Amino acid sequence: MSKAFVCGYPISHSRSPLIHRFWLRKYGLDGAYDPLSVPPDELHALVSRIRAGEFAGGNVTIPLKEEAFTEVDRRDEAADTIGAVNTLWRDGVTLWGGNTDAYGFAANLDAEAPGWATGGGTAVVLGAGGASRAVLHALVERGFDVSLTNRTEERAEGLAAHFGPRVHVAPWEERQHLLQHAKLLVNTTSLGMTGKDALDLDLAALPSYAVVTDIVYVPLETPLIKAAKARSDLQVVDGLGMLLHQAVPGFERWFGVRPEVTPELRALIVDDILKAHP
């Protein structure tokens, strides 16, 4: 029986067990996927258990992604570029670390806004935290020029230097003006998340062909998503699909089946979110 896990500290909030256990049932597989509470100083011991064959691999979440980056033998291109590992798997004696967040971000848009990346264009990205790194990697790979803005401009400058000439930094105070030529607007900040302040942004200047997405998925309809839907002419993609799609490559590595993100799976996770945040 293949065994996998999600580790973090704390870990009780993770919805990964719901996702992977749903797929194990759906495909009738003999496997297990469990949450493990792992402080940063105990990650090395868990990695040793993977190397010993106890686990096929697992997911890594906050605050262990950077620590996992240093624990593996080899990393995929996304993990190297993003600077963090969220997926671990064994290939013979080699322990691999990957990052599926960029894949999950792009796959969500592929599914919900087909053609979003055709011909490239300009994307406006709000926020320069850890999640922004995965989004920038995906956008640069898909041929976008990115206008990146963050409340602390120095952090945005650091990311622009890392990702190269296709990423340009604009002051946070100018975020409104960036919308005029945006083909895609992405919020990677925590603004709009349950318990946080709303994002202060007027979407009136966005072109009618623009796509708006928010990687926040609690609540499912953030103030940004709500405002974009009110325009009626914009394509709008919420953040839940990124969570679901980023889980696909890991499941395939550990259990040998490439799973599908279906309406049934989404409904399961939506129900769980609504129970936790009625």
List keywords for this structure.
Rossmann fold, globular, 2 domains, alpha/beta, 12 strands, 12 helices, 278 residues, 6-stranded parallel beta sheet, 6-stranded mixed beta sheet
Explain how this protein is built:
This is Shikimate dehydrogenase (NADP(+)). It catalyses: shikimate + NADP(+) = 3-dehydroshikimate + NADPH + H(+). One of its GO terms (molecular function) is shikimate 3-dehydrogenase (NADP+) activity. The mean pLDDT is 96. The chain starts with a strand and ends with a helix. It is an alpha/beta fold and 278 residues long. It is built from twelve helices and twelve strands. It has a six-stranded mixed β-sheet, sandwiched between helices.
What is this structure, in a nutshell?
The chain is of the alpha/beta class and 278 residues long.
Helix content: 25-40%
**CA-based shape:** globular
CATH superfamily assignment of the largest domain? NAD(P)-binding Rossmann-like Domain
Instruction: Count helical runs.
Output: 12
CATH C-level class of the largest domain is: Alpha Beta
Keywords: Amino-acid biosynthesis, Aromatic amino acid biosynthesis, NADP, Oxidoreductase
Domain SDH C-terminal: 239-261
Domain Quinate/shikimate 5-dehydrogenase/glutamyl-tRNA reductase: 122-190
Binding site for shikimate: 14-16, 61, 86, 101, 217, 246
Helices and strands, with pairings:
Elements: E1 2-8, H1 16-26, E2 31-37, H2 43-51, E3 57-60, H3 65-71, E4 74-75, H4 77-82, E5 87-91, E6 94-98, H5 101-112, E7 121-126, H6 130-141, E8 144-150, H7 153-163, E9 167-171, H8 175-178, E10 184-187, E11 211-214, H9 223-231, E12 235-237, H10 240-246, H11 248-255, H12 263-276
Helix pairs in contact: 5-6, 5-10
Keywords: Amino-acid biosynthesis, Aromatic amino acid biosynthesis, NADP, Oxidoreductase
InterPro entries: Aminoacid_DH-like_N_sf (IPR046346), NAD(P)-bd_dom_sf (IPR036291), SDH_C (IPR041121), Shikimate_DH (IPR011342), Shikimate_DH-bd_N (IPR013708), Shikimate_DH_fam (IPR022893), Shikm_DH/Glu-tRNA_Rdtase (IPR006151)
Domain Shikimate dehydrogenase substrate binding N-terminal: 6-88
